[in-house]
DNA sequence: TCCTTATGTACAA
DNA sequence: TGTACCTAAGGAC
């Protein structure tokens, strides 16, 4: 379930679990040749930028992974069970194994190709080298809606449909507001909030965006469970009451994705 | 057992 | 804007 926090967490987990000599296989078949090249070497380093994951093996040799909408990674201890035939890449050591299924990208690339991936991505709130002003320089010039801009990985890397909906709610911003009408102060607040929310997402390995004062307990309401594993204000809550004002959460399709917002808390 | 849906992206027209 | 791609879970039959 991949937004940027998932990928940064995977970078940490791959590095922590795969120490020592690695054996690589591709039961599904599409990565067999590359797996043979990786086998016998150590996993030297891992890195994430937005939703892109890089596993560093030999010098000038990286596995570039993008999970897309369906990709999943599962970790386990040896003895590893026989892989199912959908496992694109299994990396195994003496003590652990990691299975990758359904990625949109899994390719062996060079340093230069990796640099090209970084070059087409915007700043990532989870990276220390990120420059929020570089993102705002593009946002403030754009007539495109802020909802679409937040999903554009060239502008800001790592935000997906959940963080997009939730951060706009938290700042009371109408998703249809054009980028050029977002003030520098608003952008800074949104960025700083994403930094905090996404770091918490890496730590917890899920997306929680509800402030302590708005939890069901704090508001004297029955406990609730959002079906994607985190506590949120608007994502996939179409037709249900806003946690703050009680208005019905709305949904609409925007650039082939579902957008969720509270029409009362996020007025035009 | 079939159909829908999903936290994504790239490419063609 | 539409379509293709990759997988699995949940719900309707």
Commentary on this structure:
The protein is an alpha+beta fold and 268 residues long. The chain folds into two domains: 4-119, N-terminal domain of MutM-like DNA repair proteins (Alpha-Beta Barrel); 132-261, Helicase, Ruva Protein, domain 3 (Orthogonal Bundle), CATH 1.10.8.50. The protein is built from seven helices and ten strands. Strand 6 and strand 7 (96-101) form a beta hairpin. It is globular. The mean pLDDT is 95. The protein binds a DNA duplex (13 and 13 nucleotides) through helix 6.
Low-confidence stretches: none
User: What series of H and E elements makes up the topology?
Assistant: HEHEEEEEEEHHHHHEE
**Overall CATH class of the largest domain:** Mainly Alpha
- Total count of domains: 2
Q: Give the helix tally.
A: 7
- CATH topology grouping of the largest domain: Helicase, Ruva Protein, domain 3
Brief characterization of the structure:
The protein has about 270 residues and is an alpha+beta fold.
